[in-house]
Amino acid sequence: MTDAIRAARAPTLAVILGDEGLRLFFPLSALHAALWPLLWAVVNGFALPFDGAIPPGLWHAHEMLFGSFGAAVLGFITTAIPEWTDSRRLQGRALFALAALWGIGRVAGLTGADGAAVVAAVADTAWLAALPVYVAAVSWRKRTVRLVGVLLWLSALAVCGAVVHAAFVIGDVERAQAGLHAAGLVLLGLLGLVLARISVPVTNLVLDPSQGSSPYRPHPGRLNLAPGLVAIALAGEIAGLSPAVSAYLFIAAGAAFLDRVAESFIGRAVFRAEILVLAGSSLMAGAGLLLVGASRLGAGFAETPALHLVLMGGLGLGVLAVFAIAGLFHTGRTFPLPAAARLAVALLIGAVVLRVLPELGVLPAPPGLPHALAALLWAAAFLSWLKVYWPFLSRPRVEEAAVC
């Protein structure tokens, strides 16, 4: 086939990105995750262009949860649900419409103005509501109950988003803070569900690259233990339980995530990057939940660093792990993880260490603008992933590209 004919038949970038959710939303998530903390901590000095009723710190939390992690959820759900159910995936205009709604919310989040809260509320509520509707529709068509857990967590995320955005619009700081806290726990519950889904096939592929056997089988009773206990902890928060009671619920949820770490001990293969990154996500999420419980029981530190360990560490590393692993298999590639992906993991862990340990009194605060170095390492992590994976995601699958 001549170069001219091949070029004429080559799909455009829009067609390639619109072919599958992760191709569009994973790069958007990585860019937002890299740039927002830099703007927040380094460029704007923990401020926003406009002073409104909502403190800039809550806008920061909003943008990380519904912006960076929100795009990751969009990419994962629109890719994984069709794969799990053998159904037609969302493509083209549907994906770009979701991306437009997500993007409108992010532009609004850059200003911090009260009027921007209305714009963000409309746009974000639309895509947050669309996800559970989409999953419910697929479940109904396929007559399956396998997606009930995902549907419940996505519905909870949509409710949290509605509460947060309503609070932003009316300027209710206390309710907005509570809603953001709940949204973080919902995303953590989704993380536990995703880790339970992907850890088993990843572990089996590491142990047997030929995929001729399934040498690793998890204990079925513990498969959904972590998201289940996170749900109980979230229910306790909504019910307004005392700090002591809620502390033990968080400790139980943390122990469940640590139990997932124990399941990663599969011999020498535990030192493979593909295993370590998934185990590391559970480790930081579990350790952070334990620290939240300890803080509520009177430990000598605030909840803030503990929550950063949960969300920035556990959830952030989990998102990066999904980016790295799914980004290979959905572009026709396989293990091992590229060196740049392993570097991204190391940079992200370094960012979490610099952000969390000084506030826990374990490390001295780094010199310079507070949290600037952590923001730089965090940005470098996602940009390192994007640099190596963008050529994979922006071109046809390997086997398709090789066909003449």
Automatic annotation (TrEMBL):
InterPro entries: NnrS. The keyword Transcription regulation does not apply. It comes from the Bacteria. Keywords: Membrane, Plasmid, Transmembrane, Transmembrane helix. The chain crosses the membrane at residues 21-43, 63-82, 94-111, 117-138, 150-170, 182-200, 274-294, 306-328, 340-357, 369-390. The keyword Ion transport does not apply. This is Short-chain dehydrogenase. It comes from Azospirillum argentinense. The lineage of its organism: Bacteria, Pseudomonadati, Pseudomonadota, Alphaproteobacteria, Rhodospirillales.
